[in-house]
Specification:
By secondary structure, the chain is mainly beta. β25 and β26 form a beta hairpin. The termini are far apart. GO terms for molecular function: metal ion binding. Pfam families: Pirin, Pirin_C.
Length: about 350
């Protein structure tokens, strides 16, 4: 008798990607930026672009809300967390609390917006001799009602500290998962931000990026029932789950208590993002960058932002970028500094 499939639902990828509670947003950016100019922007014409709102998916790269440097100049957040996975390229962070950083090429920034913070996320094009590829995920993880007003906080999960789980199948084909949150076997992610839903182990939050060699097979392990889990097949040719074939650009929602048999049936590597967590089962009201449990909460956040600007903006420019010779670093609100080489 065949086992029941782990597949619950299949959806198409859009922009942004659809998510399940406790996640509320997921964006994937993949840009092939040209060489950089003296201002750390693209050494190319910006003619014909909707500068300030450049999201055209038909182009090889986008300026997003940037005017000179691509990225997202200062903007507010409240009521949730951002988990930014810098796969390729570099991201410059600055915020209204005076914290700053440069990260990427495998690093992850985990930022708790809590009661409110402004930050900027710019993509400095440091290479003036060749291309500046950028690939990142930004995932919004909700905060429960009890934590909506916690103090803002950010921490870095440096690439050197993020564990990899490696599996080699009977044919010698490899699957590698980078564990940003959660655990596979003995491979456990670094601690998340302290007020996060992910900080409570019983919530079973998992964020993994997965690469499967052509032909590789791997059984995604089951866990307790009642969790929401989604597998985002975002790059590759085709893959099967429990024998059912899928092309790329699909979201496969899975039953958490059932093992899912993955097989990359394409002729090139297949790439997945995996999100899992216990649902909060709380009402979610979102108004742009603000998330609350009801409409009254949104009104309160907007009034607070209008009155305080969440501490104002202590930086000389809204699209703050750091010295081009600076390596990866994080300067925290308490004055603590972490420095890494590029």
């Amino acid at each position: 008798m065949s086992q029941p499939t782990a597949i619950k639902m299949v959806r198409a990828l859009g922009f942004p990607w659809a998510t399940q509670d406790p996640f509320i947003f997921c964006a994937y950016h993949n840009d092939r930026y040209p060489k950089g100019n003296n201002e750390l922007g693209p050494d190319a014409s910006l003619g014909g672009r909707a500068i300030g709102q450049d999201f055209d998916p038909s182009r090889e790269w986008r300026m997003y809300h940037g005017q000179t440097v691509p990225g997202f100049p200062h903007h507010p957040h409240s009521g949730f967390e951002t988990v930014t996975i810098g796969m390729k390229g570099l991201i410059d962070h600055a915020d209204s609390l005076g914290a700053a950083g440069r990260f990427g090429n495998g690093d992850v920034q985990w930022m708790t917006a809590g009661k409110g913070v402004q930050h900027s996320e710019m993509f400095p094009l440091l290479n003036a001799e060749g291309e500046n590829p950028l690939e990142l995920f930004q995932i919004w993880l909700n905060l429960p009602a009890r934590s909506k007003k916690v103090a803002p906080h950010f921490k870095m999960l440096w690439a050197e500290t993020i564990p990899e789980y490696k599996h080699t199948d009977d044919a010698g084909k490899a699957t590698v998962a980078k564990i940003i949150a959660g655990q596979i076997g003995d491979s456990k992610a670094p601690a998340p931000a302290p007020d996060s839903w992910a900080a409570e182990e019983e919530n079973e939050v998992a964020i993994w990026t997965i690469r499967m060699e052509a032909g590789a097979k791997w059984a995604l392990p089951p866990t307790v029932a009642g969790l929401n889990r989604s597998l985002y097949f975002y790059q590759g040719q085709q893959a099967s789950i429990d024998g059912q074939q899928f092309p790329a650009s699909k979201i496969i929602d899975l039953y958490s208590e059932r093992e899912a048999l993955l097989h990359n049936t394409g002729g090139e590597p297949a790439y997945f993002l995996f999100l899992q967590g216990r649902p909060m089962n709380e009402p979610v009201v979102q108004h742009g960058p603000f998330v609350a449990n009801d409409r009254e909460g949104i009104i309160q956040i907007m009034q607070e932002y209008q009155a305080t600007e969440f501490g104002g903006w202590p930086w000389p420019r809204p699209d703050q970028v750091h010295d081009k010779n600076k390596g990866r670093f994080a300067r925290h609100v308490d004055g603590r500094v972490e420095e890494k080489s590029l």
